[in-house]
Amino acid sequence: MKADAKEIDQGDPEGHDLDPLDGGESVGSMDSDITRSYNELEKHYYDKLLSMNKEHLCFLQRDPRFHKETMCNVCQRVFGKTRHLLQHVTDKVKSGSDDEENHKELLHELVLAFTSMSTNCYELP
Ligand SMILES: [Zn+2]
Fold it and tell me: Which domain covers residue 99, as residue numbers?
């Protein structure tokens, strides 16, 4: 029996290493300590926001910037204050409803805004 026809497929070379990274992008220059504390701060805010912690949210009452109308991007509902939006989002996240995941993303965005806001405060000269 003659069945030694070897077929080597060289038509599609897989995994060729083209590396066209000659742009001016520099990633990863951030201090890992800063990244870690940033992540911890982020988680901290997530927990506090989700539980609507009074101490962490009282600034929403004081700052007039948060007394403007704001909209939930997920269900297009308009809220009179940021705090009411936050209440709505955390309710949705905790309710386990169909749009829970979308509201979770929105909450995460809010947390990121909080986190960068507070880290910017620390960076003030
Ligand atoms: Zn919503």
Answer: 24-118
Model pLDDT for residues 18-35, shown as the tens digit of each residue? 555 555 555 555 678 888
Distance 104 CA to ligand 1 centre (A): 10
Nearest to 35 by CA among 108, 125, 119, 124: 119
Position 123 in a domain: no
Total structural domains in the chain?
1
Specify whether the CB–CB gap between 85 and 70 falls below 8 A: yes
Residue 99 lies in a domain: yes
Token pair in block for residue 87: 């209440």
Alpha carbon of 93 to ligand 1 centroid (Å)? 9
Residue 16 Cα to ligand 1 midpoint, Å, equals 45
Give pTM, 2 decimals: 0.66
Residue 88 Cα to ligand 1 midpoint, Å, equals 6
